[in-house]
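Thread: quick sanity check before group meeting

JM: Hey all, I'm pulling together slides for Thursday and realized we never actually wrote out the predicted structure for the chain we discussed last week. Dropping the sequence here so it's in one place. If anyone has concerns about the input, flag it before I start.
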Amino acid sequence: MAHGLGNATLGFIGGGAMGEALVAGVLWAGVPAERVQVADPDEARCKHLERTHGIATAKDGNALVGTCEIVVLAVKPGRVAAVLSALDPAHAAEPLWVSIAAGVSLAAIEAGLPAGARVVRAMPNTPALVGAGAAAFAANAGCSDADRARARALFECVGVAWEAPDEGLLDAVTGLSGSGPAYVFVLLEALADAGVHMGLPRDAAGLLATQTVLGAARLASETGRHPAALKDQVTSPGGTTIAGVERLEAAGFRAAIHDAVAAATRRSRELGN
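JM (edit): ok, ran it. Output follows.
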């Protein structure tokens, strides 16, 4: 039995990359395939999901809204209003709705559903595709403690989850963890390029850069130690690491990260408005 999801039936409207990642996660966590359905208008995509995961699919969201206790809205933000307006209102108020459409507010989702609908808005990120995601979510006033626990359990199937006490914080989440993988990929590319510049073969530089970032993140996560303490542990007086750190500080590395998160947060707010 999947942790926290009990015997719930789950439906996904939208079978793209993130929707499929969540499907794979809940199946891996133990939800039987017969309790998972996906609706997607792309017939080829539906066949892929059926073949890969052994689940039932449909072209129309109405085919699963009336039978699923949790429905994940996994469509592009611009399609949310049209998808919700096409639903049968007689059934649309019944499930717990979990939206992963970036920038679409709880109020906007509620406006497309019957009064009293229970809605969770979430911001996952792409490492969910490999079971290492970071998601944050906020629930509307209609959600119970059990609803919020199920939302958390859903995202914990593909990583970690944090409940935001205020929906407004999801813009900052977008700026940090939503967009953050891109910042890390830029760092990975830069590290590997620097290794090549210093004479390493390209394949070795890429391997070492990727494992270094992965290992450092795991060390921080599994030890629970503050990043500053871990940095000090590897930074010997007068050594190589402090020489490199000094150049990062001189180049404004920290400030650039602050500016990137702030810019992405502002853009998320603009898109939401």
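AS: nice. The longest strand covers residues 133-139. The beta strands are 10-13, 36-39, 56-58, 70-73, 96-99, 118-123, 133-139, 159-163.
JM: adding both to the slides.
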